[in-house]
Design goal:
24 helices; alpha/beta; 7-stranded mixed beta sheet; FAD/NAD(P)-binding domain
Amino acid sequence: MSDRLNITRRDFINGVAMSVAAGSALSPLELLAGTAAPYPPALTGMRGNHVGSFEVAHALARDGKRWPRPAAQTDDDYDLVIVGGGISGLTAAFLYRQAAGNDARILVLDNHDDFGGHAKRNEFDVDGKKLIGYGGSQSLEAPRQYSPAAKKLLKDIGIEPHRFYDHFDQDFYSSRRLGRGVYFPAEHFGKDSVHRDAVVLWGQGHGNETKSILDKYPLSTEAKQSFHNLLTGRQDLLPDMPRAQKSKLMAGISYCDYLRKYGQVHEDVVVFLRDYWKSYWGVGHDVLSALEGARMGMPGSWDVDPALDPALSDDDEPYIFHFPDGNAGVARALVRKLIPNAIPGNTMEDLVTARASYPELDLESNPTRIRLNSTVVDVRHGNNNEGVDVTYVRQGEAQRVRARHTILACYNHAIPYLCPETPEEQVAAIDTAEKTPLVYINIALRNWRAFSELGFSSFYVPGNRIMHSFTLDFPVSMGGYEFARSPSDPIVVHGVYCPTLPDQGLSHREQNVAGRAILFEQSYDELEVSVVSTIQGALRDGGFDAGRDIAAITINRWPHGYAYEYNELFDPPEWNRKNGPHQLGAARIGRISIANSDAAAYAYVDGAIDAAVRAVDEQLRL
């Protein structure tokens, strides 16, 4: 590997040292005051909850700091003020304007330097070619199952999911015989080695090839034999148990313990499988049930009768509803409808390459305004409860606006700190959930010849390491944006890191809390070094040289990531999307409503949309 990385560094933007911001009260954008404003999607380095986006909120929640509410308003009155410019907040703005008319005055406040919340867009320029990646919310999953309101919302903003069948090349990787590899890093397995993945979800391995694949793994003879028995043997470890009893048992035991107790599976194999779906849930199978393992097609459980759980039934809707920038495409479609001059074009396809005009977002002439780099610190009723006063901090100064209605579309856990009128029982309900931390890593490569040479399009990395999986980008071409079809073309590699403390007796929630603390303590340098080491170790035998082949790295850090979804191992069986403490947590507080995926207990786009539908309806009824 080259001695130093020839990549776009995070340390400098327009010649200004960004590392200074870590010890500064100023955000990167404020440090750049007086220079040409940067284009947020093109910033590399640490993104997501970037420097400048969280310090005020942490001072409020952790240190009890308070900002004096300005005696006079610093802006005009609004019909609606929304706290949070993610998909839920933007949806609320769109729906309210639909109902109240185009002249309704709406202000959206967000603490980040970009709109979209977790639906984050990353852009790169690699040797003159523009690459687009997703730094957060990934895809529209199973849109056919969306609520009527969510389906209507997509249609109203010009997104027609069926068109992705034309844009997403479902056979691209399989037609080139590129499968999934496993990278065993030296720090856990003695030496670096790469092998074919022996696991086939909802299947019994690779048939006669399973043994030859496993024989090459750096595991003991006993572990390899145990692994082979699991992959090629009986897939229902409880074949004689009555259905009802089996369902109850599998919902009450972790998948890892299920393998240990009922499959007598070797511990090294259990650990190998523990983090296999970590990028989906944000935690490993040590805190996910055996029934969830069956839903995900894991070995030893996939052949369980679907009648045990409706979620085990087949769904033929493919996972293809993906913009090149993920669900940032949805956020951009909403912004286009709210502020047409901000994002040119008129189709879902031309959303992909349209360049957002950030100065247009907060013009005084806009009926709807989006104000970035603005952290809300106080929300309370005023004017004899006929309105809501909203205080926020921008460039270190407290400012105040008043609205007839307010919707909190921010992190649920922030609400008790910024809204002192939240009832105690509602605060307790909010506190039952704990968002899952995660990191989405985008690595811009000058080519993907090493992947092609090795015969893999993705890798799983066992061992609870930073970047535990990474994959070549989704093969989507639309709106003039072309996917990297030749191995010689530049491409985005997407990696995932979910900080956890597995097999230490911690619950799902406790691992989320611990993982968040770990993540906040990790520097960009530490994360970058591990990311580069991982991809170099995995691709070395394919001729990869990180110093030569990596053009840029963007690390999207989300300490408050996935909304918490009820976990049958730790939560009462009657808690679900339609019944649980999240409903009390999302209760209206006078002229203040709550809308976010947390309030839906569902970490998906339609959860965020449905929460916005409810919140807007609550306020319109007033």
